[in-house]
Amino acid sequence: MKIAITGGAGFIGSHLVDALIGNELLVIDNLSSSTTKYIQNYIDNGDIRFVNADIASLDSSLLEGVDIVYHYAACPDVRLSSEATEKIYHDNVLGTFRVLEAMRKNDVKKIVFASTSTVYGNAEKIPTPEEYPSRPISNYAASKVFGEAFIQSYAATYGFDYTIVRYANIFGPRSNHGVIWDFYHKLMKNPNELLILGNGLQNKSYLYIDDTVEATLLAAKASGIFNIGSEEQITVNEIAKIVASELGLNPKFKYTAPVAGKPVGGWKGDVPAFLLDVTKIKTELGWSPKTPIREAIKKYIDWMRKV
Ligand SMILES: NC(=O)c1ccc[n+]([C@@H]2O[C@H](COP(=O)([O-])OP(=O)(O)OC[C@H]3O[C@@H](n4cnc5c(N)ncnc54)[C@H](O)[C@@H]3O)[C@@H](O)[C@H]2O)c1
């Protein structure tokens, strides 16, 4: 199999590279939020071909002979997406369009697309199944809805097969963003106080990277849209307590929103409460999440301690 992975130098992408090594791999990444650190060995040993390129100006001929594209290159930052609107358009909208065009021109038959739970916005139905309508409340989510829609239209028009995976918050070694990363680094700087964005009552779902990769590879063998996440929600306050206790600290928590009532998001576009319904991937593909959140946070903190 010749497989192209856009964003393959990044957090999830580089784990996919690890899992798919042995195939003929082409990694396309402009290193805008990563380095080649996690794939450098493979590049040096000639196990993969790495092309430093912006997908928004992708040379179509790169995808010649490719059987399947894992499209993971994107700006993954909801918070940034309210300000860096041109960047979201460039990386996520134009970038996805160029990838699809390159696929069309080279008759590539399959795409696996990294989408997000945020496409559901403030869903009234929790857990939220795949059939629930997309109602984005951030520019990031809207860019992913664009990607999903164009993938489906290209699939219908040009005969592609597609798998769209809608991820919960993914975390684990190599991730350099997200709430756990943020708390750990804030507490390293100031062990006495932790500023929590929002009111701490945000109640979300997370998934450890190993479980994510396993689910993604299974979903890639099937077609259609799959929610991928854990079956448990956890509040931001609980995460703060776990991170602090893992570090042996007892900091004072401060908040950017009043600590009462409903969950309040920490930034524009933040979906304050969600849980994905993962019945489809469980029943159709036999997958279920394995790593409990507390154990996963510990593993991630162990990794952050070493880097
Ligand atoms: N991490 C999560 O919780 C999460 C959740 C849902 C969906 N996703 C999606 O999964 C994918 C990977 O996310 P991640 O967390 O690994 O982020 P990441 O920032 O670690 O990886 C993204 C990679 O894409 C590259 N990239 C960005 N814009 C590019 C461009 N224009 N051209 C070429 N390369 C470009 C970056 O350099 C980086 O290596 C993204 O599409 C993201 O939207 C992530």
Short description:
With 307 residues, the protein is α/β, with parallel strands linked by helices. The protein has 2 domains: 192 residues, NAD(P)-binding Rossmann-like Domain (Rossmann fold, 3-Layer(aba) Sandwich); 87 residues, Alpha-Beta Complex (UDP-galactose 4-epimerase, domain 1), CATH 3.90.25.10.
Q: Could you characterize what this model shows?
A:
The chain is an alpha/beta fold and 307 residues long. The protein folds into two domains: 2-170 and 206-228, 3-Layer(aba) Sandwich (Rossmann fold); 176-204 and 232-273 and 291-306, UDP-galactose 4-epimerase, domain 1 (Alpha-Beta Complex). The chain contains ten helices and twelve strands. The strands form three sheets. A seven-stranded parallel sheet has the order 3-2-1-4-5-6-10, sandwiched between helices. Strands 7-9-11 form a three-stranded mixed sheet. A two-stranded parallel ribbon has the order 8-12. Helix 1 crosses helix 7, helix 4 runs parallel beside helix 5 and helix 8 (236-246) crosses helix 10. The protein is globular. The protein binds nicotinamide-adenine-dinucleotide. Nicotinamide-adenine-dinucleotide binds next to helix 1, helix 4, strand 5 and strand 7.
